[in-house]
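fyi for ur records
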Amino acid sequence: MVDWMEIEKKHFMRTVERAPLTIVKGQGSHVWDESGKKYLDFVAGWAVNSLGHCHPAVVEAVRRQVGELIQTSNHYYTIPQLQLAQLLVENSSLDKIFLCNSGAEATEGAVKLARRYGKLHLDGAYEVITGTGSFHGRTLAMVSASGQLKHQAPYTPLPAGFINVEYNNIEAIKKATSRTVCAVMLEPVQGEGGVNVPSPDYLKEVRRWCDEKGIVLILDEIQTGIGRTGTLFAHQSFGIEPDIMSLAKGLGGGLPIGAIMAKDKFSVFTFGEHGSTFGGNPVTCAAAFETLKFILENDVPRNAYDMGQRLTERLNGLSAKHPGLITNIRGKGLLMAVQFSSDIAKTLAQKCLEAGLLVNDVKPNAIRLMPALTITAGEIDEAVDLLDKAITRLGVGN
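which gave:
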């Protein structure tokens, strides 16, 4: 048998500490390794596989499109791109769209758009306020935007123009706002930061402050958008609308795509001010269009809400079974975290892997659960049972 892990060690820049698992097949909420062992996947490509692995609608869209047109450039019109743009705009509160290839590109483009607005309408204001614990991507600018020192430290000096303030603290935003600030950029629920859900009124207060000061509110919905938290976009459950929004991850149903969306007032790019060679690629757009169409027609966000409720209930039961071990269960919809009283997440994730469950050790003391939005009640129950089994094998539960 080929030692794929040794090949990775020999040839790859080792930027990711991979789990000892080579996945060769995926279907729905399950994957299989090269020996044929089956796993229940509660990572879903880091919240990417919104309809699960190899969903028939996505597979057929890709198969059809690669036989017709794979790539042109944005010098020409293509139908899948325009179909996706229309469907996104018609089902959001935003008016215009730019398609790119990833979440990092989407957030970077959103910041560029806000800076352009600041130059045109806010006397050249250019700074963007972000939250501590945030994660907005791995470009140099987005590392600077992200409020996590561990990501910033290796790359100093960082690009200027970002002010990191305490998340879920409106007074911190107010204090940081000056005449050089053009925007506030926040995740409605922080994902990579540990699944941090703000207080119910926080985003409304931020929205009011941005309106009062005339600055842009950017919402990074890379991880929370496209049904993940129980509504099509997370901001809907908080009762606000953004001026600019970034999307990626679950939009493509497994294929790489990102999007910047903006209200007309803030859509200030003009010819030559932004662009992308592969952005809006016909194949990825065809997959994204069918993914979004399926999500809307089948009310998949409702399933995410309902299954999120069930997952929370089952995890609460697990917490009661292991008192003192699980200190917090938090999240929204199917973006959940389980926090522990000690730094056991990495070891527990390995025990889960051995038991046949894939989870993400998002923090030293917390695991993140983000399954397909089409997950079933039976699969939720199976996952919690496997997590319970892994905790018992770890020897830390009661």
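The chain has a mean pLDDT of 97. thats all i got for now
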